[in-house]
Design a protein that fits this description.
The protein is an all-alpha fold. The radius of gyration is 16 Å and the shape is elongated. The two termini are 21 Å apart. The relative contact order is 0.15.
Length: 130
């Protein structure tokens, strides 16, 4: 399966990012270790699941040589951003403490995921054109 390698790399990136965020959150924030760990795990699961679906649809469009790849690519990034903003708003409504740490965590996962998926999709699209 073509998705196994990129998702394995993404999982390895998340495994490295999680402890770094946990260390930063507990060192610079006043949030409990349990709450920070739970937030990081849930964010990693969400971003990984969303990337799995996103890359599966991307590969399907790429295999069909569809003309809507660019539109899908941009739309998927927009939807991911809106979902992240929605998650952040819901968290802010229900959990007042630790909002700065959670914002830092979600921003880190968002940026790492965006950079990696953008790089991977551009690389695959170039390889498919040749």
């Amino acid at each position: 399966m073509k998705l196994l390698k990129p998702l394995g790399i993404l999982a390895a990136i998340y495994c490295c990012l999680g402890p770094l965020l946990l260390l930063a959150g507990t060192k610079f924030g006043n949030i409990s270790l349990r709450q920070s760990t739970l937030a990081i795990i849930l964010l990693a699961v969400f971003f990984f699941s969303y990337s799995l679906v996103s890359l599966a649809v991307f590969h399907k469009l790429l295999a069909q040589k569809s003309k809507v790849i660019t539109t899908y690519y941009l739309g998927e990034k927009t939807v991911r951003l809106l979902i992240c903003i929605g998650i952040l708003i819901v968290y802010a409504l229900f959990q007042k403490e630790g909002l700065v740490n959670f914002t830092m965590d979600i921003a880190a996962f968002y940026l790492v995921t965006m950079v990696y998926t953008s790089y991977y999709c551009i690389k695959e699209e170039r390889r498919n054109k040749n």
